[in-house]
Amino acid sequence: MSKYWSELIRWLAPYVPGEQPKDRKYVKLNTNENPYPPSPAVLEVIRKHTGQDLRLYPDPNGDILKTAISDYFQVGKDNVFVGNGSDEVLAFAFLAFFKQAKPLLYPDITYSFFPVYSNFFGIEAATVPLNSDFQIDLADYPTDNGGIIFPNPNAPTGRLLHLEPIEALLQRNNASVVLVDEAYIDFGGASCIPLINQYPNLLVTQTLSKSRSLAGLRIGYAIGPAELIEGLERAKNCFNSYTLDRLALVAGTAAMYDRDYFENTCRAIMATREWVVRELEQLDFEVVPSAANFIFIRHRNCQAEELFSELRQRGVLVRYFKLPRIDNYLRVTIGTDGEMQELIRQLQVILSVH
Amino acid sequence: MSKYWSELIRWLAPYVPGEQPKDRKYVKLNTNENPYPPSPAVLEVIRKHTGQDLRLYPDPNGDILKTAISDYFQVGKDNVFVGNGSDEVLAFAFLAFFKQAKPLLYPDITYSFFPVYSNFFGIEAATVPLNSDFQIDLADYPTDNGGIIFPNPNAPTGRLLHLEPIEALLQRNNASVVLVDEAYIDFGGASCIPLINQYPNLLVTQTLSKSRSLAGLRIGYAIGPAELIEGLERAKNCFNSYTLDRLALVAGTAAMYDRDYFENTCRAIMATREWVVRELEQLDFEVVPSAANFIFIRHRNCQAEELFSELRQRGVLVRYFKLPRIDNYLRVTIGTDGEMQELIRQLQVILSVH
Fold first, then answer.
1. pTM for the predicted model, two decimal places
2. Residues of B whose CB is below 8 A from A8
């Protein structure tokens, strides 16, 4: 604590990302990265643009990437906002839409950056409990709110909501923004994006970090009605004119246009998820139904924290959250078949001596 | 205006960066980019890291880049903060240090992002006029403040402050943070960085966008006492865990280590500046003394706004700010010798028919 710190930062609890270890080589299943490399077209376009133009500022509007995203989703370019990872996009959305007199609502178990943003920006927030199956029940959300945000599929549970309950929420909740964070939607869910033309308060965020294998380049976006996009642009232009660098812009563009590669890698991850779930169930794990590139699991006999440590010692990193309701669960990213076989093998050893 | 916008963003006047035109090829002297390409070592390291690891998140702490910067300046690694351009670093500093009961002070003519941040973050601010020679007179700054920020050299004037008045300010102003934005310090000024060990309230920001030819990659940093750096980390970790992508981290690192290339390009730009100033004076321009990679000029007879338009039509882009006290000045980036010859040639034509 320093006497020079503003009141604002004195009492913060910053977000803690999953570790990026450097001490040894791990089977890294802790931060929901894609086990497959980016599309070859992405690597090619980065190499092509690695030249003297890096001395020039990027396009502050990120036009080429907005065009690629609007082409992909068949929406207008003024329906697209791009940012330095979807975390930055979410931060701008909190400032632009959720700083209201009424409280923002989100699930009690969800992406742990939501309470961090709320504290940081002085936004009053209230949580709505997931049901006992870790499902979001949108019928539980009162309309007397300053905004609603939830991931779909939810994190860290992986559970998916179908479009019907989301549309029912939008029909009754039209006085505040509903933000659906679809970071993991490409692994088995249906996106809300087709609904943006009907609901002026619907904003959807997605990221290239997961399904497009580009966590290393920090590219996220929001899709929504033009007025909401304009709100995000206003916030961004009061913070940083050029949030996406030249290489990220061309790389993201190439990734959006390589639809085949994207679909193939998503399919591969979903196929791996299916057999891993069966294997884990045979090892006496309960697996929350997942539509994400991770699964949320609990063993019937063995404590999650202990499993986490044992796996770590054996070179397998997963994520453990010491939080109410979920402190006996592990979140496990879906890696390659080989990585998941290694996970299963190590779990078999750990559980056999337990 | 949308009913879904928060009060905060309704009344903002966002920052407007210099244009990045796409309509035709310009001699681009409007955004203080470096006319020389990045170091060959930078391009090489980017190509080397353009591979499958882009699927993985970057190091959230940016360790390699912090090490390179701390090596360069011979400061501790805990004296270094890195961000997505110095604009982002400044934004975090406003939140971490300047959100105070007393007003933040900055010059009346300065980097126009300062009032934007102040409005955006609800920070009370007051301006202190430059003297009639466009000099910052730090003796004019009262100590009853919530922080002091100024660029050195100042923008858009290019005027440099020497270390003595800055140190005199630090000696009498110890209750609030003094932030010196040294975006342009490498073109002829002396940095305050050696003072950070003596003054616990001194923070210095710099950028790789100008003197290291990397505007396209968005890399900035702050150097200061460890407690102030920790304040910035707290703010950043409530906003975005990974602000610098993998390629920016390795590129910035290589740029910091290639000291010869950096010194040579800075020297070349300063040499160009000297002869351009003489040429402009012969064309009846007044040139504010500059220690930056740009000059701030006024013609004795011809209006700046008119010159700006005429130059633009003739393919030369400079910057014009329609603001009190400086609305008859042009800010002109120092380009290559060839680009500056073209500027002079076009000015000769414009002025001859005027």
1. 0.96
2. 95-96, 99
ipTM: 0.96
CATH of the domain at B304: 3.90.1150.10
Interface of A with B in 144-173 (CB under 8 A): none
Whether B182 contacts chain A with CB within 8 A: no
Query: Does the distance separating the beta carbons of A87 and B218 come in below 8 Å?
Result: no
Residues of chain A with pLDDT under 70: none
A44 found inside a domain: yes
Q: What is the CATH number of the domain that holds A61?
A: 3.40.640.10
Any CB–CB contact under 8 A between B306 and chain A? no
SS3 of B329, please?
A: coil
AA identity, residue B103: P
Is B287 found in the same domain as B221? no
Provide the 10 A C-beta neighbour count for residue A189. 17
User: Per-residue DSSP letters for A200-251?
Assistant: TTEEEEEESSSTTS-GGG--EEEE--HHHHHHHHHHHTTT-S--S-HHHHHH
| Same-domain check for residues A291 and A212 | no
Block residue for tokens 């997961």: A210
CA B2 to chain A, closest CA, distance in angstroms equals: 6
Residue B130 and residue B71 share a domain = yes
- A&B contacts, CB < 8 Å: 262
Q: Tell me, what's the pLDDT at B16? A: 82
Cβ neighbors of A4 (< 8 A, separation 6 or more) are B97, B176, B177, B200, B201, B227, B228, B231
Number of domains in chain A: 2
